[in-house]
Specification:
single chain, alpha+beta, Rossmann fold, 8-stranded mixed beta sheet, 4-stranded antiparallel beta sheet, globular
Length: 706
């Protein structure tokens, strides 16, 4: 029987007209004028109205993002622009009506999940932050009902916690919801003890919490639940005996809920540690570990013997699964959105993939992959007949469908970026950067439409922020680096988006070898990426620019003074040029946090109490080596990389008789440009700057010849 039944008998989705495709006149930002004047700038190149019109589509926020189907299948939650920020909108699928349930002004809603069918939990962040949406600023945990009422803050954002001088803020994580019709959920928290977590049963309606783990089998790092939400396991940290006690991690288990605890396995510590993820069945767990390998992988572990399976369930030789070397979560096991059981495995590799463990979903997934070849097909089942289907790729913005299991019918519901047409997005080509000291680091590059082999193009090497984050991933306009690459490719430029040592998610070796190398070997990696592009045959060695923001803005200026003859120009945003000042300044938002300062000193290789190594990698002391033209940009309200760094660079350049070609400061902006009109200004100036300094193409489809 065909997967989709049409009158013609062909297998493809039915696409009846859907009112949802035209929703949101009041939810979507009005189309920006291509001739909107600059809000504020110091030194700018003359505006080009035609160019602004061409790149407008890339700076317009997605109309819909992160669609999530309610457990009863009756409502669809999406993130959509409201009041200049990405907010939470709920669509009634029966009445075809949408309503904004949040109106955040200082943050974007960056993640959302249903709690039952009437409440939603969400977190906040800044989508334009170069190091990631919640990097050292966002987060928190909030609740609201689907009518936009009964708003509750369970945990503040990091920014709010600093502003309120709250000190230690408990870490809260939603573990599971109690059912499609329940307003209750299970939450893990370390509020009773900084060294141990508890489980609570929480009412989304009233906020009432009930402690479920008054008696703990030790200092618990995480709890394990079975599909019926009974507590079965706990990962416990214990001190060893002897003159030099150390901590060991142990899996405690009980055969039935409320039964006696037994020690099931020694989980180890450090790179060889094992991390339980979920129950496969009563005798087996899914676990994540990098034991005996560089990248973390998924295995099964016997609850009877504590032994791992001989072969991994899912593994990739270059990409971590479930947990990266920094200890942060990465894609891996996905739980069923209604029932607490594993139903898929996601891998964020060169290309994002999903493997479905549920037989029904696996069969549907295989059929849909044939219907949408080359695309990522993501499924989210409800408790009824509806399954949410999201289809996207690096060259196609996401489209949202509903699959009706009883009717065996697929209907298109939402187009997330209707302004992007076929051919507007260019492929993200994976490549492997081989550094001068032997590391092999995955990255991407983007070529303009119509590129012909052998053509030498003006090229930008984009350095991501962080630097200890994986900021760029495969997908349509998925990150700031990918968006920048698509803008520049539309104007005839090639763009390299390398990862480099310290980028997490790419195995322990790449991550560990980044510490102590900021501004030195890490900068070597950036140089090696430029040289790779030349050897690959598409980059003109005399027309290579480097650019980035935040940590990437620092890396840009550092690269230009470290290897001044390699770079034809630089684009530095949200920059830092004096690393010591950054860690001591009263206006740097994390300078008063000893743990953050310690982490940065470690990344820069600074031992003891001195500052010699920090100063050695601060480009402010080497600006006499700055030869190439520079574009620089900032937000006036930035507290992550304060404006004093921008002004310091301008001042010191002026003392040497130098000045940037473009100098842009935007009022009302912080660590990244969140206003679409400001992003349009930024990318217009970037293209104009690259055209001028690299003698690049005059517009779309340019030959790349000077």
């Amino acid at each position: 029987m065909p997967l989709f039944t049409l009158a013609s008998g062909r297998q493809r989705p039915q696409r009846p007209a859907s009112p949802l495709r035209h929703l949101g006149a009041g939810l979507v930002l009005a189309c920006l004028s291509a001739w909107m004047p600059m809000a504020q700038a110091d030194t700018l190149l003359p505006s080009d109205p035609a160019l602004r019109q061409q790149i407008l589509k890339y700076t317009t926020p997605a109309r819909y993002a992160m669609p999530t189907l309610s457990p009863d299948g009756r409502h669809l939650a999406v993130l959509s622009p409201v009041g200049g920020r990405q907010n939470l909108v709920v669509i009634d699928l029966a009445q075809r009506k949408a309503a904004a349930v949040t109106r955040m002004g200082d943050f974007d809603v960056v993640s959302v999940r249903w709690v039952g069918s009437n409440h939603l939990a969400f977190t906040l962040g800044d989508l334009e932050a170069p190091g990631g949406s919640d990097y050292q600023d966002g987060g928190g945990l909030f609740l609201v009902d689907r009518q936009g009422e009964r708003f509750r803050e369970l945990a503040p954002t990091q920014r709010a916690a600093r502003a309120r001088s709250l000190g230690r803020v408990p870490d809260l994580q939603i573990t599971a919801m109690m059912g499609a019709d329940s307003d209750e959920f299970l939450m893990s928290s370390n509020e009773r003890s900084v060294s141990s977590r508890d489980l609570y049963r929480v009412s989304a309606s009233t906020g009432r919490k009930t402690l479920l783990t008054f008696d703990r089998p030790g200092d618990v790092a995480s709890w394990m639940l079975d599909e019926s939400l009974q507590i079965r396991g706990a990962v416990v940290s214990r001190a060893t005996e002897g003159d030099k006690p150390q901590r060991r991690r142990v899996l405690m288990w009980r055969e039935v809920a409320g039964g006696a605890w037994r020690e099931a396995a020694d989980l180890g510590v450090g790179p060889a540690a094992v991390y339980p993820v979920a129950m496969k069945d009563d005798q087996t767990l899914y676990v994540s570990t990098a034991r005996g390998r560089d990248t973390s992988a998924l295995y099964t572990m016997s609850l009877r013997t504590g032994e791992l399976s001989a072969q991994p369930v899912a593994a990739d030789p270059r990409f971590d699964i479930q947990r990266d070397a920094s200890g942060e979560a990465v894609p891996g096991i996905m739980f069923h959105p209604v029932r607490h059981r594993p139903f898929a495995i996601a891998i964020q590799g060169d290309v994002t993939t999903r493997q479905y463990l549920d037989e029904e979903m696996a069969a549907l997934h295989e059929g849909l992959k044939k219907t949408f070849p080359g695309a990522l097909v993501a499924l989210q089942p409800s408790d009824g007949d509806r399954v949410l289907v999201t289809v996207s790729s690096d060259v196609q913005a996401a489209k949202v469908y509903l699959w009706d299991k009883s009717k065996r019918q697929l209907t298109e519901e939402l187009v997330t970026r209707p302004e992007l047409k076929d051919g507007d997005l260019q492929p993200l080509h994976p490549f492997l950067l081989k550094t001068r000291d032997g590391l092999e680091i995955p990255g991407y590059y983007v070529l303009p439409k119509g590129y012909k082999e052998g053509q030498r193009l003006p090229t930008l090497v984009h350095i991501h922020g962080g630097p200890h984050v994986r900021a760029d991933s495969w997908g349509p306009m998925s990150t700031t680096g990918v968006r920048e690459a698509q803008v520049l490719a539309s104007q005839g430029f090639a763009v390299v988006i390398p990862n480099f040592r310290i980028t997490p998610g790419l195995g322990r070796k790449i991550y560990d070898q980044g510490f102590g190398t900021v501004g030195t070997k890490m900068s070597d990696d950036h140089e090696d990426a430029a040289k790779w592009a030349v050897e690959a045959g598409f980059a003109d060695p005399k027309r290579i620019c480097i650019g980035g923001s935040s940590s990437g803005g620092y890396a840009t200026v550092q690269a230009m003074v470290k290897a001044p003859d390699l770079w034809a120009c630089g684009v530095s945003g949200l920059l830092v040029v004096d690393r010591e000042l950054q860690l001591k300044s009263s206006v740097t938002d994390y300078a008063g946090n000893p743990a953050s300062v310690k982490q940065w000193r470690r990344m820069m290789g600074q031992d003891g109490d001195g500052w010699d190594k920090v100063r050695a990698i601060s480009p402010v002391y080497k600006l006499d080596q700055l030869k190439a033209p520079l574009m620089m940009w900032a937000g006036r309200d930035d507290t992550r990389t304060p404006l004093e760094q921008f002004k310091l660079l301008e001042e010191k350049m002026g003392e040497l008789g130098k000045r940037p070609v473009v100098s842009m400061i935007k009022d009302g902006e912080g660590h990244g440009y969140r206003k679409p009109e400001n992003r349009l200004d930024l990318y217009e100036q970037m293209v104009l700057f690259l055209r001028q300094t690299l003698q690049g193409p005059a517009g779309p489809g340019g030959s790349g010849q000077p």
